Amino acid sequence: MGVNTRIVSTQLLAGLAAVTPPGGTVTPQVAAVVLVDGSGNLLKATDNGDGTATLASTASVAEPAASTVSVDFTVSAVIAATAKDYRGFAVRETAGAAAVVRLWDNASAASGTVVEEITLAANESAREFYGDGGIKTSNGIYAQVVSGTVAGIVRTGP
């Protein structure tokens, strides 16, 4: 297992005071981190029961499942028909004019609670990622094209 690591994501781990990686000790301030070794394998922290944990390389550790929905924003569209975690977007304006897209907590229409409003200038792109937990929706996710032409993706979770 290589010593070179990179942070993949952070998550809170109650009761985890320290992580003992190869060659040293890391003490998290607020959250533990999920690390990847030099070969790209995820490292799994195993609680030792004494306030420390040991890192081991494993291919079975995975990030929570996520979906990426590619959307042609020339028309309004259903992104998710049931409650989902809204995790973010990556969009670009494609017609050379300003554009606005609203994402709603609704399975089929532009009504209810606005989850996100994306405003783009001509030829602008924007992206946002809210992490693995995302923003909880109760009813689904509906994308309303208010004006302009936009292409891109919307990220959702379980």
Commentary on this structure:
This protein has 158 residues and is mostly beta strands. It folds into 2 domains: 6-58, no CATH class; 67-157, Jelly Rolls (Sandwich). The strands form 3 sheets. The chain has a 5-stranded mixed β-sheet, with no helix packed on it. It has strands spanning 6-11, 18-20, 32-36, 42-47, 52-58, 67-72, 77-80, 85-93, 99-105, 113-120, 125-129, 135-136, 141-147, 150-157. Strand 3 (32-36) and strand 4 (42-47) form a beta hairpin.
Identify the notable features of this structure and list them briefly.
single chain, 158 residues, mainly beta, Jelly Rolls, 2 domains, 14 strands, disordered N terminus
